[in-house]
Amino acid sequence: MNDTQLETLDQVRQFLEGTDAISFQIESKEVRYRWLQHTLVKFRYLQLNKTNKGLLTRYIRKLTGYSPAQVKRLIRQYRKTGRMVRKQRTAKGFHLKYTREDTLLLAALDERHNTLSGPATKKLCERAYHVFGETDYQRLAGISIAHLYNLRKSKTYSGQRHQYEKTKPVYSKIGERRKPNANGQPGFIRIDSVHQGDQDGRCQCR
């Protein structure tokens, strides 16, 4: 867009009043930054009063499509540095040394060997790769003990392998029939309310 004909703030005000229903937007981000800096310099933004600063801010938002917070941040940058520089944010991804397949392989190894200690498991991985030539264990053969435990704590590992502890039987003495042990004390009475014993081959149950 060519806005060189706008030389005064009154012209900017008239422009905004006549284009309220029209949407403008500069496509390229680099062009937006250059245009924004040129506009701030052109209208001497830092020397304007609050009312005219608000007018120019509205004009900038109209042509760039930026939010009030974005425009405020960019103007703050211009006030501090005197220029407008686009900061390109590039997400720094971390390269995963151990893949999901490595975690699943470790889970299968632990399943076969009933989850040995970290050092013992590392030795198994080393033997699998160096002695038996199983290339799937190449990365696990060089894993540290600490990271081996980290893989065991991962969701991939726990989702592949669930460890269950067998229920231990609980022995109860309720209903147990045994000979009374009075230990020589008189007056010891044995009461069996469950079963009165057999007499003549017949059950004397009550």
Total helical elements: 9
- Unreliable parts: none
Q: Could you describe the largest sheet, including whether it forms a barrel?
A: 2 strands, antiparallel
Distance between the termini: 105 Å
Number of strands: 2
What does this structure look like?
The protein is mainly alpha-helical and 206 residues long. The protein contains 9 helices and 2 strands; from the N terminus they run H-H-H-H-H-H-H-H-H-E-E. It has a two-stranded antiparallel sheet with strand order 1-2. The radius of gyration is 41 Å and the shape is elongated. It starts with 8 loop residues before the first helix and ends with a strand. The mean pLDDT is 79.
What is the gist of this entry?
By secondary structure, this protein is an all-alpha fold. The chain has nine helices and two strands, in the order αααααααααββ. The termini are far apart.
Q: What does the secondary structure layout of this molecule look like, with pairings?
A:
Layout: H1 9-18, H2 29-42, H3 50-64, H4 68-81, H5 100-113, H6 118-131, H7 138-141, H8 145-152, H9 155-160, E1 198-199, E2 202-203
Antiparallel strand pairs: 1-2
